[in-house]
Amino acid sequence: MTDVGVVRQTAVWRTTRDAEYALQHVPDGDPIQPGRSVVVAVTHFLPANAGVVLTVERADGAVDVVGRCEPADAGWALEHHLARTGGRLVVFPGSDLLVGTMTVADLLEVSAVDEVVGIGAQPVDPATPCDTQSFVRPTFDEGVVRLLVRPAAGGRVIPFEQPNPTPCCAEHP
Amino acid sequence: MPAHDHPHDHSHGPEGQEHAHGPTLGSSADLPEATREALDLEIPDSDLSPSGFGRRSLLTRAGLIGAAAAGASILAQGESAAAAPSLAGSDSGSGRAYQWLAGDHHIHTQYSADAQYRVLDQVLHGSAYGLDWMVITDHGSVTHAKLGVEQVNPDIVAARKAVKDETLVFQGLEWNIPSAEHGTVFVHPGANEVAVLKEFENSFDGVVNGWTASSAANEQHALEGLDFLAGAVVTRRVQDAAFLANHPARKGLDSPHEIRGWRERQPRIALGMEGAPGHQAAGIKVPYGVGAGRGFYDNSPSADSFAGYPLESYITYGGFDWMTSTVGGLWDSLLAEGKPWWITANSDSHTIYLDDSVRGGAGTIDEFNALGHYVDPVHGTTGGKTTNGDFWPGYYSKTHVGATQRGYAAVLAGLRAGRVFVDHGGLVGGLEVGLRARGDGSPGSTLGSMTTPKRGTRLELVISVTPATLPNWAQFVPQLARVDVVRGNLTGPVTDRDSISAPGTKVVLQRDVSGAVGTVKIVLDLGVADEPFYMRVRGTDGKRSAPGLNGAAVDPMGPAADVLGDADPWEDLWFYTNPIWVLPR
Q: Does A87 share its domain with A134?
């Protein structure tokens, strides 16, 4: 039986960045502290623009839903996590090994990413260098862990999600 | 509670009467008699003339009656529908009757917290680079609502004089649409232009009122903002007003049902969206440029994003927004409904690629908030900035509007009618598109119009495109390589208001025009008029192409996904036209 964790914070997260920040700053000794027992951590956008929650899976298989939400939404997120049908992976087996530039083949070899696909569902040559930027956020999609990449400078590909996107109304210095 | 008391009643929505009294609003007076009576739902079927009954049956079958009655369909577009008789040889639908005025409706100045130039800087550059009209659109904000919206007006008035009105300068603002993205809102110049914009911003801006989060309640505020603009026109506070959605797919904030909702709520005000965003220099590679995403499109979903948008929607393709660049995608889903929703292309000019000027004064946000603007820019000391991602207005992106004359009202009327095509890098020297009976010598029905040929009439699309003959602002003569024609079925309103696909739409012609000198005339036989459909046209320098997101069978050589950190905008040029609908009678 999977545990559904306690709601651990009061503010509704609106961005994945907020959720990840919270995950990185859980206190020492907390069972969901990354690098200890957590094997998979996933962000989910709740229905009806209700916010972001995390599902956090520990080595013993227990999954906590973390973040403020309605109970029904917690169950919804949990279902997607368990069925691998939705959500965006922050922590997953091998995620800490995805640093710098590596070939797509190596990325698939060392991590739990099952598939790397290009824009328009185009296949990607496994020999293509992938600039991970140490920020790889694949998604649960149809039961597999899929990483969407886009073309980047120098004939490389780059994971679709950028670590530092241009903020709204940014100073473009 | 924001100021909400404006002098018109609140009977809004599809059944609302207020917009029916607008000076140029969607009156069906110019439609053929049979269509007019078919659309008048006060007349029972039994009282219709035979031709009126036939027309109503057809419209009902196509699902267009309801939308037309709501004013949100092409059928209620009095002006564009007036082009319909051109199939009978009238000149009223002729593209050649219009002057094509190039413009840009998305420009920031020192009255925006993330920009720096004087109004005059932008206007002088835009004028020099060939713009006939411009809209000054500083960001809606607490400071702008309090100070900037008034302060900018004398600068705009002075700039109009400085260019001797050779470039028309509208005052507008960039609206933080409640629950959604940014949008251009602008008005016809006049005694109340500032008062109307100021009241609008204070009452309906998402940032000023704390309504940016996506929610049903905030979506309502956006609709009320459009109602306010319509009311300002109806009550003659301003002669005209318009709204266009900016960088619509950038962060997934403009959901399909919001876009449909805006258009349907105030079809006279809500005209369309940026087909191509600004910031086109942002993808130039390091060390020559910023090395970001073209258009600064490098975002990912947030809790405010529409969940149905794929990740692919967050980037540009050939410099164009995913909604527009995807054949059979969101834009086509609107066109297939018969929903007039036009595309534009603008600079979003904030800070210019390789310009070396900097803000004067302290240049701090505190100074901006205290003054309402930044101090005039000064010559910088660090050389041209490769970290800027924008082009001057007119330098790269142009929105070409078919106007009956040169003037503010005519530009707005042309935009509203959808007589619009857009291009990048000066790709197109001239363009006329007409749809007519085969062999008919007339220019045909032009962009944005609906034509109503007799069922069984053989039709043709005529494209006269003149490749550029002069160098662009990157000092080369762009070479048009290919012209593509897109055709889709006109299927009427969707049941799913969040629909983002038009399965019947695809590229039906790819014509190699490389090396052509002078005007190229392409005549495409459309067959015999039977079911309703629409056509639109696209072209490219052919330097970057890829199968479209809906597959090669739909779009064999569409715009390719722009490379993150290496997208030279001058080496990937496209033009797009707005559509022409065909509704056989």
A: no
Asked if the model's pLDDT at residue B81 lies above 60, the reply is no
CB of A13 within 8 Å of a chain B CB? The answer is yes
Q: Which CATH class is domain B99-398?
A: alpha beta
R_g of chain A computed on alpha carbons: 16
Q: Return the structure tokens found at A12.
A: 């509704």
Instruction: Report if pTM > 0.90.
Output: no
pLDDT digits (tens, 9 = 90+) for B85-135: 333 333 334 445 799 999 999 999 999 999 999 999 999 999 999 999 999
Q: How far apart are CA B358 and CA B380, in angstroms?
A: 5
Q: B354, B564, B571: best mutation site toward chain A, by most A Cβ within 10 Å?
A: B564
> Does the domain at residues B425-582 carry the CATH identifier 2.60.40?
yes
Which of chain A's residues have a Cβ under 8 Å away from the Cβ of B549? 119-120
Interface contacts (A, B; CB < 8 Å): 102
Q: What is the ipTM of this complex?
A: 0.91
pLDDT at position A145 over 90: yes
Q: Where are the domains of chain B?
A: 18-87, 99-398, 425-582
A171 in B contact zone (CB under 8 Å): yes
Please give the residue range of the domain that contains residue A155. Answer: 95-159
To probe the interface with B, which of A124, A135, A168 has the most B CB atoms within 10 Å?
A: A168
Residue with tokens 């328009």: A120
Q: What's the CA gap between B439 and B457, in Å, rounded?
A: 11
The 10s digit of each residue's pLDDT in B386-418 is 999 999 999 999 999 999 999 999 999 999 999
Q: Are residues A104 and A87 in the same domain?
A: no
Do A171 and B114 make contact, defined as CB atoms within 8 angstroms? yes
CA separation, residue B59 to residues B48, B54, B338, B581 (Å): 14, 9, 11, 13
> What is the rounded CA–CA span in Å between residue B248 and residue A169?
14
> Which chain A residues touch B298 with a CB distance below 8 Å?
162, 165-166
Nearest residue in chain B measured CA to CA from A18: B302
Dist. CA A49–CA B496, nearest whole Å? 18
Whether A49 and B214 lie within 8 Å, measured CB to CB: yes
Do strands B580-582 and B533-540 pair parallel, antiparallel, or not at all (unpaired)? antiparallel
Q: Using the beta-carbon criterion (under 8 Å), do B561 and A150 form an inter-chain contact? A: yes
**Does residue A33 fall inside a structural domain?**
yes
Residues of A in contact with B117 (CB under 8 A): none
The identity of residue B107, as a single letter, is I
Residue B517: pLDDT band (50, 70, 90) is confident
pLDDT value at residue B65: 54
Q: Which residues of A touch B387 (CB under 8 A)?
A: 172-173
Taking residues B215-236, what's their average pLDDT? 97
What is the domain count for chain A? 2
- SS3 at position B249: coil
B568 contacts on A by Cβ (under 8 Å): none
